[in-house]
Amino acid sequence: MVIKKRRKKARKVRYKIVKLKLTSGQKTALDKFCRANHTTPVRAIKKAIQPIFKRYQKDVPPPTYVSENQIDLFQMIEEVEMVATDAGNVHMADGSGWNDRG
């Protein structure tokens, strides 16, 4: 005799309530949009904010801080290109240079 395994109970989805205030013009625009696209206002709002949810589902990325001493690679590339084109007259981005011929 074969014993059948029972399925685990599905986890119940827990919802949170969010209140939203709209002006009368926004409400009529939302209703018109929903009638035109055969959807409900709740589904339209959820679909509109879905990309934000996707971005922050796992964890919030840490803020990026740029210190004063951090190297600006694009500025360095411009300086190297400038040196290559001047071929002897070096001008830095700040206007100073060691080989100025005035």
**Which oligomeric form is depicted?**
single chain
Q: Segments where pLDDT lies below 50 for 5+ residues?
A: none
Q: C-alpha Rg, in Å?
A: 30 Å
E-strand count = 0
The total count of helices amounts to: 3
Distance between the termini: 100 Å
Main β-sheet: number of strands, strand sense, barrel status?
none
Shape: flat
Strand content: under 5%
The helix content is: 40-55%
Mean of all residue-level pLDDT scores:
79
Helix/strand structural class: mainly alpha
Q: Output the helix-strand order.
A: HHH
What would you note in describing this structure?
The protein has 102 residues and is mainly alpha-helical. It has a domain at 24-55. Helices cover 42% and strands 0% of the residues. The protein has helices spanning 24-37, 41-55, 73-86. The mean pLDDT is 79.
